[in-house]
Amino acid sequence: MKTIDKIYINGEFVTPNGTEYFDLISPTTNEKLGKVRLGNTEDTQNAIEAAKNAFKTFSKTTNLERIEYLKNIKSSVEKRKDDFINIMTEEYGGTFQFASVSYDYMLKSFDSAINLLNSYSFIKTMGESEVQMTPIGVVGIIIPWNSSNGFICSKLSTAIAAGCTTVIKPSEMSAQQTQLILECLHEANLPKGVFNIVNGLGEIVGAEISRNPNIAKISFTGSTNVGKIIAKEAVNTMKRVTLELGGKSPNIILDDADFSKAIPLAIGAAFMNSGQACIAGTRLLIPENKLNEVKALIKETIPNFIVGDPKNPNTAVGPMVSEKQFNRVQDYIQTGINEGAEILSGGLGKPEGLENGNFVKPTVFINVNNQMRIAREEIFGPVLSVITYKTEEEAIEIANDTTYGLQAYVSSSDSKRAHNIASQINAGRVQINGIGHDPMAPFGGFKQSGIGREFGTIGLEAYLEPRALIQPK
Ligand code: NAD
C-alpha cells in the first residue's frame, strides 16, 4: 500500500495543507493500491505564487537555456522507461501496448519543443513594425486520467519552450503516475517554481486555477462539460484558454477501400486505449451495400482484440479506469439496445473470468442511425457504432452531423479521392488510410471538441502574447 502525501511547490516536495485522502483503486482487481493526500485552495495559491515569482526570471531565459532544461528532463524520463510503463498499466489499467506508445510520445514532446526553439522566431516583422512574441505568464495545466504523464510532458515542454511557468493539476486518480514524473522533473534541476504540481480535486484545485487572477492561461484537456465550466470562470479574468475536449470521431470507409485492411484498422481506432480516447473512431461509416462484408470482417477481427490483464503485451483492451466509468459504459450499451440498435459483438456484462476488474466486452452495434444517443454522445469505452450511407455526400453529411470535431478517419484505395473527402470534414485532424501522430502539426477540435490547438507553431503561439512596437516615420 502506497501513500502519496506530498505535492510539489517551488522546487520542493511539501506536505499539503489539505488533509483529505483519496483512495487509489486498481482497475484490474478493484483492490486498494494506496491513497493520496489532496491539496486544497491554499496549496493551489502557494503553487501559483511560486510560479508567479519564477516567471520573472524564467521568462527572460534564452532559447539555449530552455533547450538545456528540456534535454535534462528528457534524460531523466529516459532512465525510468519501465517504471513509466508499469505504473500506467497498474494504476490506470492502460494496456502495455498503449503505455509503450504513450511513453515514446512523452519523449518526443521534448524533441518537438527543442525543434520549435531551434526554428521559431520570437521576434518578427509585420507591416513596418517589430512584433515580439512574449511568454504569456503563469499557465494552469488541468488534465484527465487517460494519458496523464503524456499530457504533462507535452504541455509542460511547450510552456518551457515559450518561457512560461506552470501549475499542474493532474487527475487525483493518477497520483502514482504523477509521483513518478515528479521525481524525474525534480532530478532535472530546473529553476524553482517553473513547474508546481498539486494533487487535488477539480472543484477545489482546478477551480482555484480557473479563478486565480495570477494565472494568465489555462491549458485544459478533459470533458466538454468541465471545459465549459473552466472557460466561463476564466473569462472573469480574461485568461486565455486552450481546451482539448471530447470527440465522437467518424471513420468513413469508401467503397473502393481494401476492407480487409480498413476494418481491422477501424476496430483499432475505436478501441484504442481501451476506448478511453478522445480521438477514438467511434462512428464507423460504411457503404450500405457492403454491410454483410463488413459484418463478417468485424466478427473475424474482434477475437484478435484480446481483453484482459493490461500487463500482458498481447492485451488490446484493458479495464475501464474506475467502477464509475465501467457503469457509464454499461449504461450506454443498455441505451443502444433500448434505442433499437443491434449488437453484433459484445454486449452487457463482464467478459468471463474477468469479473474482479472493470472490464467491459468490446461492443459493436449495427443498425445505428446517427440520431441515436450512442452515435451522438461520447461513451469513452470500447463501443463502436456502425452506420451505413448510400452516397459519398451522405457520408460527409453524417460525419459532420455531430457537436464534436476532434478527429476523423478516411479510407480509400484512391488517395486523391480520400484527400478530397478529408478536406470536407469538420475535424481538427483527419487521418487518411492509417493512424499517425505528427507532433509538429496542430491538434485540437472544431465545434465543441475545444478551443485552440496544441503542438507545433500554432500550439507554441497559444503560450505567447504578441507585442507590436510601432515607430511612425
Ligand atoms: P474531466 O473533464 O472530468 O476531468 C479533467 C480534469 O478536470 C481533471 O483533472 C478534473 O479533476 C478537473 N476538473 C473537474 N472539475 C473541474 C472544475 N470544476 N474546475 C476545474 N477543473 C475540474 O475528464 P476525465 O473524466 O478526467 O477525462 C475524460 C474526458 O477527457 C473525456 O471527455 C475525453 O474526451 C477528454 N479528453 C480529451 C482529450 C483531447 O485532447 N481532446 C484527450 C483526452 C481526454
CATH class descriptor name of the largest domain: Alpha Beta
- Which regions have little confidence, pLDDT < 50, spanning 5+ residues? none
Instruction: Give me the secondary-structure category.
Output: alpha/beta
Assigned CATH superfamily of the largest domain: Aldehyde Dehydrogenase, Chain A, domain 1
- Helical percent range? 25-40%
Kindly state the mean pLDDT as a whole number? 98
Gyration radius over CA: 23 Å
Q: So what's the overall shape?
A: globular
Instruction: Bin the strand percentage.
Output: 15-25%
Distance between the termini: 70 Å
**CATH topology assignment of the largest domain:** Aldehyde Dehydrogenase, Chain A, domain 1
CATH A-level architecture of the largest domain: 3-Layer(aba) Sandwich
Largest sheet: 7 strands, mixed
Number of separate strands: 21
Give the count of helical stretches: 15
* Heteromolecules bound: nicotinamide-adenine-dinucleotide
Order of strands, main sheet, comes to 15-16-17-14-13-18-19
Overall number of domains: 2
Describe the protein's architecture and organization:
Helices cover about 40% and strands about 20% of the residues. It has helices spanning about 40-60, 65-80, 80-90, 95-120, 150-160, 175-185, 200-210, 225-235, 260-270, 290-300, 325-340, 375, 390-400, 415-420, 455-460; strands spanning about 1-5, 5-10, 10-15, 20-25, 30-35, 125, 130-135, 140, 165-170, 195, 215-220, 240-245, 250-255, 285, 340-345, 360-365, 385-390, 405-410, 430, 450, 465-470. The chain is globular. It has 2 domains: about 1-245 and about 445-470, Aldehyde Dehydrogenase, Chain A, domain 1, CATH 3.40.605.10; about 250-430, Aldehyde Dehydrogenase, Chain A, domain 2 (3-Layer(aba) Sandwich), CATH 3.40.309. It has about 475 residues and is an alpha/beta fold. The model has no long low-confidence stretch (mean pLDDT about 100). Strand 11 (about 215-220), helix 8 (about 225-235) and strand 12 (about 240-245) form a beta-alpha-beta unit. The protein contains 15 helices and 21 strands. Helix 2 (about 65-80) packs antiparallel against helix 4, helix 2 (about 65-80) crosses helix 6 (about 175-185) and helix 9 packs across helix 10 (about 290-300). InterPro entries: Ald_DH/histidinol_DH (IPR016161), Ald_DH_C (IPR016163), Ald_DH_CS_CYS (IPR016160), Ald_DH_CS_GLU (IPR029510), Ald_DH_N (IPR016162), Aldehyde_DH_dom (IPR015590). Its EC number is 1.2.1.3. Keywords: Oxidoreductase.
